[in-house]
Amino acid sequence: MGRRLIGWAAIAGGCLIAGAAAAQPLAWAPPVLIDPLTVVVRPGDFTASCQGRDCRLVWPPGRHVGAVRIFNARNLVSIGGWTSVPQPADHSNAPPSRILEVSGATGVVHIEGLLGDASAGGMSDGLDFNAPKAVVQIENVRIDGVFGFYDQFHADCIQPFGGVKALRVDRFTCRTGYQGLSIWPVSTSPAGWSVDLRHVDITAIGPVIHGAHNDGGYLYWPCRAADCANVARTSLSEVYLQPRPGMAAASTVWTGGLVQPMAGAIGFSRLPIDGHVTIGAPPNGDFVPPGVAGPAYRSPGYAPAAN
Fold this sequence. Notes:
Blueprint (H helix, E strand, L loop, with lengths): L4 E2 L2 H4 L20 E2 L2 E4 L5 E4 L5 E4 L5 E2 L2 E4 L4 E4 L2 E3 L13 E6 L4 E5 L2 E3 L7 E22 L11 E19 L4 E2 L11 E11 L15 E2 L11 E10 L17 E3 L2 E3 L5 E2 L1 E4 L28
Parallel strand pairs: 3-5, 4-7, 5-8, 6-9, 7-10, 8-11, 9-12, 10-13, 11-13, 12-13, 13-14, 14-16, 15-17, 16-18, 18-21, 18-22
Antiparallel strand pairs: 1-2, 19-20, 20-22
């Protein structure tokens, strides 16, 4: 039997989604999958291994409730979906409390059109990755209302906690009760790893949970060591950070003092980071408005030069 290849232009690009901001072609196309394993997300906390193969992740037609963890994919493609994490009986860091975790991938991980929120009542991170050999692409994703605090989960919108080879983001909205883009280098981050952030808005929604230590949280961590060693080669384009009321703009970014405050923005001239973050909200609203990501998602397609 010949190898079965799945290309995504015809499948994902047939219809334009509503909303002018989200209807622009996306920067990066999904990888072509070869003899893919189809992984159907089941109710509750869900874990699956792709066994080193290409995988296509299929979400249920309505809201999924439970943490989702996918291991050992080569290439992985997920388009659409709605998921939330329930309130666990255990309030420590032990329970799985990540909207989506991808670990052990070695090719291209493509997450597009996913809606992750806190509607099921549990604190959680957003998208977490432990894949130092993989290129991770996140496009037209909305993470809405995640919450946490210092002593437990930090409600990171995106965190490559085990490293990635490259992180590519185009059109991403996150409303978080604690932290935002936690993309500092870790011990497994490869030398020369890269980050490309385009059309990203992160909003601090304020404390939404009991207990102390729930009123902080940086919205962008490009590094967390004083020397910022092995910080990713980063490109920033239309990245907006909206701090919680009363928080100073400079407190939205942690770079060990290596920031360059500007009028309404923060730059990074002392780091390998091109561009700046703008303090405030995008002038035309969220890059991924409500109703775009989720079960009814339809991709707007991909720019001709997508790579």
